[in-house]
Design goal:
alpha/beta; Rossmann fold; N-(1-d-carboxylethyl)-l-norvaline Dehydrogenase, domain 2; 2 domains; 6-stranded parallel β-sheet; binds nicotinamide-adenine-dinucleotide
Length: 302
């Protein structure tokens, strides 16, 4: 069984390490927040107090951090992974970060003789706990194949998306599509109701018609229509507005570098920003319906 170094034991990293331990691996974990390390130690992570300690003797190191800036600190910073890991250790960054930082980290790893894979995930905290995450991997064929064997206990699906940064590219574009579809669904749900359609009747029609989409089927933003919708739960976050805002922002950052105008992504980004400015960043992103109809059913009232 392998020795795995893990950096970033938050909402995702915590439960992901649990599945690696259940598969028989040793996980040496570090987080800048001691309480996160302590919580992970509760399910068997070996608590380490620095990156240097966490990567020592590891076959593979995973990082699961908030943003590109954190990934840069962890890999490139003083006392970071590149300063301390052995070049025989495979490195996988599973954080969702911007494309430019991901390719920069690949380049920096290559310059120092490391093998590096970008490997963001989809499936949320519940997928992390269930070991059913979708991994999107970017990098060299051999490195990706090697990474897959360690990833399996955490994953339902593993894709080799392509070369350096391809995992992040796939993740960013997927979530941008989700956000744009969601904006369509909330506007559709409000207009359908104003026309006098019963939500459950319109939902049944749209789901087998050309208006169908993943957020329609999974997050229909009216209580009592779809079991998995946050609307049933006063829009308590399944996927928070903050996280969706971050992900659409990554798409817009990438679009700028690539010289593309994404008008629908810009629109939904501004709607998500509005929700955050209104103090609702912790609500589920489908609470965006409140900007179409402030009296939408299920919204928390202040
Ligand atoms: P989180 O904020 O709960 O966890 C991140 C952890 O990284 C924190 O515990 C933080 O203390 C730690 N950290 C930050 N800087 C560090 C450093 N320099 N050294 C060591 N540890 C450091 O975030 P999360 O929800 O676990 O998400 C992690 C990543 O996964 C993000 O990029 C997010 O976009 C992505 N993601 C999250 C979800 C979700 O539903 N939460 C779903 C898919 C992808």
């Amino acid at each position: 069984m392998a020795v795995i170094g893990w950096i970033g034991l938050g909402r995702m990293g915590g439960p992901m390490t649990k599945n690696l331990i259940a598969a028989g691996h040793t996980v040496n974990g570090f987080d800048v927040v001691p309480a996160a390390v302590e919580a992970a130690a509760g399910h068997g992570v070996v608590a380490k107090s620095s990156i240097a300690e966490a990567v020592e003797g590891a076959d593979i190191v995973f990082s699961m951090l908030p943003k590109g800036e954190h990934a840069k600190t962890v890999y490139l910073g003083e006392g970071g992974v590149f300063d301390n890991a052995s070049t025989s250790t495979l490195l996988v960054d599973s954080s969702t970060i911007d494309f430019d930082t991901a390719t920069e980290l690949h380049q920096a790893a290559r310059d120092r003789g490391f093998k590096f894979v970008d490997g963001p995930v989809s499936g949320g905290v519940s997928g992390a706990a269930a070991g059913t995450l979708t991994f999107m991997l970017g990098g060299d064929d051999v490195d990706v194949e090697n990474a897959k064997t360690f990833i399996e206990p955490m994953a339902g699906n593993i894709f080799h998306a392509g070369g350096e940064g391809a995992g992040q590219a796939a993740k960013i574009v997927n979530n941008m599509l989700l956000a744009i579809s969601l904006q369509g669904v909330v506007e559709g749900a409000v207009l359908a109701q104003r026309f006098g359609l019963k939500p459950e009747v319109f939902y049944d029609i749209a789901k087998v018609s050309s208006g169908d989409s993943w957020p329609l089927r999974t997050w229909y933003p009216v209580p009592g229509v779809v079991d998995t919708a946050a609307a049933n739960n006063n829009f308590e976050a399944g996927f928070s507005t903050m996280l969706m805002h971050k992900d659409v922002g990554l798409a817009l950052d990438g679009a700028k570098t690539q010289g593309v105008t994404l008008s629908a992504a810009e629109l939904v980004y501004s709607r998500l920003q509005q929700l955050i400015d209104d103090g609702n960043g912790d609500l589920d992103c489908s609470a965006i319906i409140g900007l179409v109809d402030e009296n939408a059913e299920g919204l928390p009232q202040d």
